[in-house]
Fold these 3 entries.
Entry 1:
Amino acid sequence: MNESLPGPDAPPESPVTRLLISWQSGNPEALDQLTPMVYSELRRLAHSYMSREGPDHVLQPTALVHEAYLRLVGLDVRWHGRQHFFAVAARLMRRILIDFARQQAAAKRGGPERPIALDGLEIAIEQATDLLALDDALKRLAAMDERKARVVELRFFAGLTIDETAEVLTLSHATVERDLKLAKAWLAREMDD
């Protein structure tokens, strides 16, 4: 790998970033060292997702973490750092939950309405179709404005801060805030329809 060294003003790499790069370069021991470092964060993400699903959800946070982790280690991705890793993990968890929700919706329909909080925005949704409706709305948003959809995904699904989202997408803090505000308004309208 022919990468230039960071300049004197470049932020220092986190241990997770260094291990990701080492693992990517073919060092299998790096994965062994990386696993305990990222497991608790992956579990936090999974817990965040599962808290929206209700206490009777069949899929447990640990199972979601394990499934996501198995998919992560099988990916051929050029990791750009810690935030990139967790953004990809969040997208994988979203896909796993969407697939599970589709299976559940096919098996049974209906259920009580529950609100989903989207960073202070609550959207009333049905139990079996909540995640599917949000996913469909995000796909429509992505077709119109991919960047705004990514901002929502990183904030809502990955739980990244505005600054972390800005770093992953190489945007300014103000742009992320503006995109998030517009995306939330658009999603609220879509979900109400």
Note: Confidence is low (pLDDT under 50) at residues 1-11, 112-128.
Entry 2:
Amino acid sequence: MHSFLKFANDNRAGIIRLIQELVECESPSDSLEHVNRFLDLLVERTSDIATAEKIGVSQSGKALKLTFHGGDGDGQVLALGHADTVWPLGTIERMPFRERDGRLWGPGVLDMKAGLAIFISAVRALVATGVRVRRTVCLLVVPDEETGSTYSRCVTEAEARNSLAVLVLEPGTGLEGKLKTSRKGVGHYTVYVEGKAAHAGVDFESGASAVLEAARQVLRLNELTDLGRGLTVNPGVIQGGTRSNVVAAEARIEVDVRVQRLEDAAFIEEQLRDLTALDSRCRVRVEGGLNRPPMERTEGIARLFQTARRIAADIGIDLEESATGGGSDGNFTAALGVPTLDGLGAVGEGAHASNESILIDRIADRVALLAGLVRLL
């Protein structure tokens, strides 16, 4: 493992240049043109070590599968990443890529362009040190993770079914860079309330307020949260009515649901579908569902983490694990029963925020960790 660490330290400037290129090639989720341009850049930067395949996931969106040269083909190890970021086009002008205070800064640097550069560098470390891996090694980069992976999920799941293990290049947890061995499942629901409009001054009693009924439903939704079970129900947005002098005919509530166990997803689904209006003159309708199943910590995931922990210890890193309420594409692969290790990307802070940055002195050990995992799996 020390040879991988030496490679990463000796080539730090080149790795930073690659990270800069990826960050400065903006790829917001809402611009397929720029996401595709970013994927083309990845193809260019790996053309000497990988075979590229574009896989259609929607009318014009594509995922990129890079199959690296040199694997013997005895099973597949799959790395997962995404091309899209939450940052709108032009953000690079006010948040330019820069190196300062021991960090690299810029939109998408942590989530997750540095993670992609680190994995590519890990494969280069294997090539440079003459290590031949036992498996086919692939990197799947999807175009729509930040918006829920609606279109790419089927591609991710298909690749995972052919894989012995999945390595997710999302950033680690905190400035310690803890790996993620469990994630909550994520659900999005909308509760629609239909009332009866009336003039608030002239004919108040004949109206049935959808806004008032929605407020009652918010209180009911809040009661479904059970922190002991790791289950949270957040009615985050409520909208309704037209004017203050009109009894509201319509309202809606946008609800975020997080579940630690798949069994709780079925429970909360039943509870939401059974919502009824407390005012018999109103009607309640619920749409939506679970977007990502939970990533539960299985024995296979635990063994994979212990392998990573031993590799890290060999290069002087005390690697820890963590659980998180956020979802990733690793949720999909873990739910299929494929051992999945998440948070293997860069170490830093500020994802989706103006202080998004990564620690420069943690790049090398992440390269070595990923190279070691690919070698041993």
Note: The longest strand covers residues 185-194.
Entry 3:
Amino acid sequence: MNSRMPLIDALKGIAAQLIVLHHLASYGALARAAEQFAPQTIDWLYGYGRIVVQVFLVVAGFLAARGLAPQGTPAVIQPAGMIWQRYVRLIVPFLFAVAIAVVSAALARVWMQDEFIPALPNIWQFLAHGLLLNGALGVPSLSAGIWYVAIDLQLYALLVLLLWLASRFSADGVIRGRVALALVAVLAGFALFFFNRNPDYDLWGLYFFGSYALGAFAYWGSQRKQMLGWMLLMTALTIAALLVDFRLRIGVALMVALLLATARYTGWLERWPSSSLPAFLGRISYSVFLIHFPVCLLMNAVFVRFLDGTVEQALAVFLLAWLISTLAGWLFYRHVECRQFTWSRRAHSSGLGRFIFEFRRG
């Protein structure tokens, strides 16, 4: 199994860059001034930039299926241990990023006043963020975009639990596989036709499970002819949901899923693009996603405090903030995200990690 997939790296890298531009176009005096220079571009980034989150959702589902049930048949599933491992994998860089965001917000408050600057946090906010429950509990976020980390954990947990239920259904592997795929498809149907149509659910993983499941079926349906029908079923289900209530985000998710399925089926998922730049941007995409908002805060503060606020200056600072966000993401990747694997192993081998992982045996 190829460990690197250049197309996925490219998708993640481009999506992360668009998220950075979306937030630069959405917050602060810098966005307001830049809009005077390129109003259509800034309006597009503000209105549509967030839709690339669907790329992360589909890719996450694709990779989760690859890791949890590559043949579509769940084997040994230990839900508590797997969810704990995923939590630790996410929380280490997440907490570092939140700490940097808190410090950056404190510095920004010295130089400017703007409603997009997070307020001084309290203990409850820190606890909610540490548990990845800040969105679900209605706690104000300490950084932009980090709601996605909690959603990622919820989606992974949902898929793990569905595969675990299927693994307990029968000793026959073929039956287990069919039950697993059916359970995922049914929950995806509920998500597409009900949960995703109600914005009140957008703090919960169920709202996004349709896109996540599209990614999972893109992986499962692209490897064997007998599983292609499941991908076709999921495609038809998604098209039906779009006919009932068209949502651009779901249309984008479907296109990304079909792209991944086609790329894997034809074999160029692991071969294209050959440039090293997409691979680099893909590797650092999670770090860029986590760290770019503190950069946005500080660059807005610099723009307000030290510059005259002209349109030309706004464009220069806007582009510089974009570049610095990528550089900061690379540094964060090298010094935090790469090292977190060691910390994750230590946490997993700790008493709490072993207890959770072995819970089912008790």
Note: The chain has one domain: 6-361.
